[in-house]
Amino acid sequence: MSLLSGNTFDAITWSDGHQFAPMLIEFTHITKCSGCGTIFWLDDRTEVEHSSEDTTPSCNFLKLYEYQEFLSTAKTYTSEEERYLRTKFWRGMNNRVRKNEELFQNLDDERLWKDNLMALLDLIGTSETDELIWRAEIYRNLGEFEESKKILQRIDDSELNWLVEAFEKEINAKNTKVFVFE
What we know:
This protein has 182 residues and is mainly alpha-helical. The chain contains 6 helices and 4 strands; from the N terminus they run E-E-E-E-H-H-H-H-H-H. The strands form 2 sheets. A two-stranded antiparallel ribbon has the order 1-2. A two-stranded antiparallel ribbon has the order 3-4. Helix 1 packs antiparallel against helix 2 and helix 2 crosses helix 3. The N terminus is likely disordered.
């Protein structure tokens, strides 16, 4: 599938980088075969074979815990792929908050959440502005507010003062949950 047009009018952007844009379709990069259950990457090398009687299978997003399942069972993936998987899991957990649900719905959720965020930190650099924003958000999510503040102080871009102020407001409120940028 490809995108012929789309826009971000009326888009909602969240502190974890997730953006809901009703006029812009999001595509997945990984899916699960509805027949055999194999999880695989969709890329230029992926070919889907089917007979003329079958319809072309759809490529759906993985369910929340399938990202973690793939991370623990896949034999190989690149650091870029790992970052994608861990980000999808992070944002997938945050979708609960976006729906006004509890972030942790069972005893394993908090452990998976923290382990995933700590592993994600290892995959994110420390020099680019977008990397600093991600790191500040992850530390804020983990409740490490002072570390988050320190990282925000390294952002030297006057056009992002509004973003830093939004994070600082949530840090001062001791809010660890994802929030909407107003």
